[in-house]
Amino acid sequence: MATSSEKAPSSTGFEKTPGWLDWYAGPSRPQFRLPEGAVDAHCHVFGPGEEFPYAPERKYTPCDASKDQLFALRNHLGFTRNVVVQATCHGADNTAMVDALRASGGLARGVATLRPDVTDAEVRELHEEGVRGVRFNFVKRLVDAAPRQHLWDVVEKIAPYGWHVVVYFEAADLADLRDFFLSIPVPLVIDHMGRPDTAKDPEGPDFEAFLNFMRARPDIWCKVTCPERLSVSGPPALDGERAAYRDVVPFARRVVEEFPDRVLWGTDWPHPNLTDHMPDDGLLVGFVPHIAPTPELQRKLLVDNPTRLYWPDAN
Ligand SMILES: O=C(O)c1cc(C(=O)O)oc(=O)c1
């Protein structure tokens, strides 16, 4: 089946980080049929660099991954909508992400990166474009640490618009960040399950600490995403593998089963910074029924929850 996403990725005007793995061209058609109205609740656009230059402060230079390629993948996989999360390679310049929202005809919402001096008029404009959240990143290989006061200043600006804060952090840093997170007075959305060490016991104290954090407030959501990033023993979603990333399943399944109304799923296309392999996104979609085994859990994870968070006025 030919899709425009089969075109080989390129990187215009920028030199990619050495060893960069490009997104998988020509993904298979998912065997798991996504329910009507499914949302890819975590994906990115990269550039194209010629039109939307990568930020000078970036920690990596990716291959291009345009909005048209993202929308072609959406259609090919059977998603209806996207949530486009600002990628760190674009810093706090949200223009590529906003351009994708604008082109989507209402089928995409966004999560932005903001500096503390952002004005109310700028936040209002982003809201009108479809942005509904701001991302705070604590992963040191991706961004330099931001002073807490800067983050507070941003929270004050976005709170009146009903936005949430998306947090990305390493499991080992949760103990230090927990109190700060719990003091943020808007809903929180955790990226990639808080990056558990999946070589450890899913019933062990580390993952229990994560679940306890989720139990601390009813408005903490979790993306049960990125098995391709978190998996240690695989097997990868390649070469027709239909039971990929088995070691991640018990972690994600615990979250889905305990918090069925506050979990989200997305592809994480174009999968920045993978070093080992690049998944076939069609096979990656096949991960979902392993972590959400019933049609009801699947509908909540893929349709009801993301629609409630990002399109509360839909239907
Ligand atoms: O783990 C990562 O490297 C990663 C990077 C980014 C980004 O650069 O924005 O986003 C993600 O969701 C994951």
UniProtKB/TrEMBL annotation:
Residues 39-310 form the Amidohydrolase-related domain. CDD domains: PDC_hydrolase. Pfam families: Amidohydro_2. Signal peptide: none annotated. InterPro entries: Amidohydro-rel, Aro_Compnd_Degr_Hydrolases, GLI/LigI, Metal_Hydrolase. Gene3D superfamilies: Metal-dependent hydrolases (3.20.20.140). This is Amidohydrolase family protein. It comes from Streptomyces coffeae.
